[in-house]
Amino acid sequence: xxxxxxxxxxxxxxxxxxxxxxxxxxxxxxxxxxxxxxxxxxxxxxxxxxxxxxxxxxxxxxxxxxxxxxxxxxxxxxxxxxxxxxxxxxxxxxxxxxxxxxxxxxxxxxxxxxxxxxxxxxxxxxxxxxxxxxxxxxxxxxxxxxxxxxxxxxxxxxxxxxxxxxxxxxxxxxxxxxxxxxxxxxxxxxxxxxxxxxxxxxxxxxxxxxxxxxxxxxxxxxxxxxxxxxxxxxxxxxxxxxxxxxxxxxxxxxxxxxxxxxxxxxxxxxxxxxxxxxxxxxxxxxxxxxxxxxxxxxxxxxxxxxxxxxxxxxxxxxxxxxxxxxxxxxxxx
Length: 333
Hints:
Blueprint: H1 10-15, E1 30-34, H2 41-57, E2 60-64, H3 71-83, E3 88-91, H4 96-108, E4 113-116, E5 128-130, H5 133-147, E6 151-158, H6 163-176, E7 181-189, H7 194-206, E8 213-216, H8 221-231, E9 239-243, H9 247-255, E10 260-263, H10 266-282, E11 303-305, E12 309-312, H11 316-325
Parallel strand pairs: 1-2, 1-3, 3-4, 4-5, 5-11, 6-7, 6-8, 8-9, 9-10
Antiparallel strand pairs: 10-12
Helix pairs in contact: 2-10, 3-4, 5-6, 7-8
């Protein structure tokens, strides 16, 4: 087998194209991305990044997990990937506490595991790859506070207990601390069903409730909230802040029903994630459970943040054209 000539401090090695030289891979080398809701566009975009990296490295890659939101089924898929002796695993834990022992067990068996998109900070995973979700919440909160003129009642849609969504909510709340007249009056548990977002939004808009804004902390809710606003003829009466770039969400921005969405980079998360797993698989560390946060000479960072940005009507066409040129989304009919 060819030796990998770069030192294990690999982020620089990955960024400088060609610096590492070719690496020989085993015939059965396979990397797996595990998610709790694989059927949504967000994870299909991540899968595109996974496939690109796999093609470059000539290794097998798979996206596994339930096609409808199900934390327990995600755990089952993770355990199956471990049993199949995957070379490395990326996971976005829907329930971080549920996954702690499974992640730690896989690491003890010598299988590198990285969290992606959503973290399990109590586990021994080496590091997290994804958005700075607190900063993403602040990004959305700052725009919403401006659009509301510093006052209004806000309803949020979320999955309680999911680490990335809790961080996003905290980001919004940190902004609202400077605006005492902005209040979060309800946090809706989607319970894995997009229909909950539609029905809750429709009921609130059809009642005497004073709701000035809907905040979707994850991708599934916003298209349905947009439908509810459209069906109740409430366009312009309520401000919607979305998350991620589902095509229906982009359509609602184009039509003026959604003010903006906080876009992430799932393609980048998975693309970079599998390359780092590959490095960890080949550059064996004394212990995969090492706490790099407390190591001043650690070979890896404590976290890799891939960035977020706002998509609004004024930059929507540029964003859609860029995604379509890269084949990462379906062109609008």
